[in-house]
């Protein structure tokens, strides 16, 4: 059964459709000012599984379809890889009315979105996320970009998609580690917005494998996460206020990802560690109850996610790295900190000494 969740914006509103990817062509065909050229951007593994279905759907809807396959992994989310999309756009003569289809996880979605934002000063993009992480977070909201060697997503633009199409069936082929990573973002929504979702996750017998979680709870995760993000983005499209709460766990998480060269932990694992740190900072500052912080830790562990900092680098490097974060304002790092499950605040009043004390209290991860 399909569901449609609207993302209402002053300009460029769009829908999040929970439906089969076989419906893609029919769902984008009615969109206004859309030409008939489509470029699918994906990686080889994802395209092998779903590329033909998407291509057939678009072709049957009257689109002329081409494709661009990129290497998989966060380490390839660079300006150099982005050039491959531009080359394909030029080779296939994409026009301002053409559409890029991001078929893949968050890396593909971010790069395709940024390519669409900058090719011919902006063309259409449709997000077709194939990972749970992208479904609940990256594909929604119009944030696009690539990484700089010294920081994540420092090069980017806001560029809203024309449609986000989420097919829960594709998750059945998702590797277990990627599924667990996405649960970090779902837990995040529970902490920042939806206490009922958090309690649902607590009541689940297991969260570390999609088969153990079950179709009903997975769909509930998708719908509730999408509604939460759609509401926040609708209120604050370009992160000038409320939208900052979506960065819960990301500040320290991004720093650790960067310091380990995106090779040791994945994004969701970084967010899990970042949520642990942010929760402990909130406790240290007297903002959050220790018992609720322990509930967060238990849920992260239940999902098979790390609550420890990986080795291989000096943890004292984390605080200086935070200064390169795109959320720094007037030289001050802005943290999202919980007050209670379902409610957070944004503050730049976290002392470096407090951050270091908390980081030093977290054990090193022996087996990342």
Detail the topology: elements first, then pairings.
Layout: E1 3-7, E2 14-18, H1 24-28, E3 37-43, H2 44-60, E4 64-70, H3 79-91, E5 99-104, H4 106-118, E6 124-129, H5 132-138, E7 143-148, E8 151-158, E9 163-166, H6 176-192, H7 195-203, H8 210-213, H9 215-235, H10 250-259, H11 267-284, H12 290-302, E10 309-310, H13 318-322, E11 335-340, E12 343-347, H14 352-361, E13 364-365
Parallel strand pairs: 2-9, 3-4, 3-5, 5-6, 6-9, 10-13
Antiparallel strand pairs: 1-2, 7-8, 11-12
Outline of this structure?
By secondary structure, the protein is an alpha/beta fold. It contains 14 helices and 13 strands. It has helices spanning 24-28, 44-60, 79-91, 106-118, 132-138, 176-192, 195-203, 210-213, 215-235, 250-259, 267-284, 290-302, 318-322, 352-361, and strands at 3-7, 14-18, 37-43, 64-70, 99-104, 124-129, 143-148, 151-158, 163-166, 309-310, 335-340, 343-347, 364-365.
Do you know the CATH architecture of the largest domain?
Up-down Bundle
Overall 3D shape: globular
What's the β-strand tally?
13
Secondary-structure element order, N to C: EEHEHEHEHEHEEEHHHHHHHEHEEHE
Q: How many structural domains does the protein architecture include?
A: 2
How is the CATH topology of the largest domain named? Dehydroquinate synthase-like, alpha domain
CATH class of the largest domain: Mainly Alpha
GO biological process, one term: aromatic amino acid family biosynthetic process
EC number: 4.2.3.4
Binding site for NAD(+): 106-110, 130-131, 143, 152
Binding site for Zn(2+): 185, 250, 267
